Model the fold of this input.
Amino acid sequence: MTTLLLRGRTLSFRRWPETIDDASAYAYEEDGGVLIRDGAIVACGSFADVRAMTGDGARVVDHRPNLIVPGFVDCHAHYPQMQVIASYGAELLEWLNRYTFPAESKFVDAQHARRIARLFLDELVRHGTTSVAAYCSVHRQSAEAFFAEAHDRNMLTVAGKVMMDRNAPEGVLDTPQSSYDDTKALIAEWHGKGRQHYAITPRFAITSTPEQMEMAGALCREHPDLHMQTHLSENDAEIAFTQELYPWSKDYTDVYERYGLVGPRALFGHCIHLSEREADSLSQSGSVAVFCPTSNLFLGSGLFDYQRYRGRENPVRIASATDVGGGTNYSMLRTMDEGYKVIALNGEKLNPFQSFWQITRGNAEALSLADHIGTLEIGTDADITVLDARATPVMRLRMETVETLAEELFLLQTLGDDRAVAEVYVAGRPAKSDLSL
Ligand code: GUN
Ligand code: ZN
Done:
């Protein structure tokens, strides 16, 4: 039995912070302790209290004056797009055809897939992200490689092979039947193995025939406990093309409704241009809209209206995500910095507590996994990130004038990146200091 006692300033959210002064929304200890046994958090509170209940033999790691927070959760990223980041000059559909599909076609090679899966999870850990909802390529072996790599590291991931059988090059297409069969086989092999979760993953309405959409719906019916992830309402040309392909549909969301793909386990990437009817549909079905600010800005897709979805009479559940490689950074801090600016352009503000709630507990709740990840609560998995707000000369200088926790969090979000991540624990094991790169 391995016992680890972390000491530092601990921060964990209980619920959404309504305002910047809403201190009961979180638990904060200036001199805190987190006791970890066999990969789980068994105590969390003041260091003195936790120390008193710890037997001899625990290894104490002193992270003071750094902040100990739950590991970040990224609710939408494409691991086969690591070599797509920074591809110049295209909006969504051209970007997919010119850069993304050719890059994904290489994942037919299991060795290539394993190498990139390894580098992708290394990069997440380096940036303080301990869980991800990931898209693999169309190839079954790309999902095998991803799950094998995540399982070896004991990282909790949600992932699936994309189902896509039209409007893309031959090398990245499956068929309705093969996508069903491969998904079934992957679910049987990986869902529930260690910390792995399978997500049924029709890429988006444009790259699936109605026959394949039926198959995706059948998979969701047969496995109601599984996640479903896809893209929705990202840019104008995509929306218009979808309307052409599904002429009977009321709107884009209606396509997914018709095939039974909406619901509390459904994660819809982007959701930038939704009508009120579509927002109502997501709200009523308990579906999640995933905010991907760096991607939405990079591809020029539009401004996600976070406060409109949150503040409406029927709120829409919201997650946030990098969307690598449409997204331009692996860091959830950089993601929320860009998110803050997008929300500001919509005339609103997201305060720093709300941002940190979002990338920890908020995203865990969006995945319906808050009993396992996203907090420092007793009984949850010990996925933890240690943040250093003095990591760079610029941050150190700015910290000289910082007086409150809110200011420190905002500084971390505005100036922080992987350099501000001092250590990461994955299921209680030091993971960042363990990286070979
Ligand atoms: N829509 C369908 N596929 C993709 C993808 O890979 N990235 C983004 N940003 N949008 C998509
Ligand atoms: Zn995406």
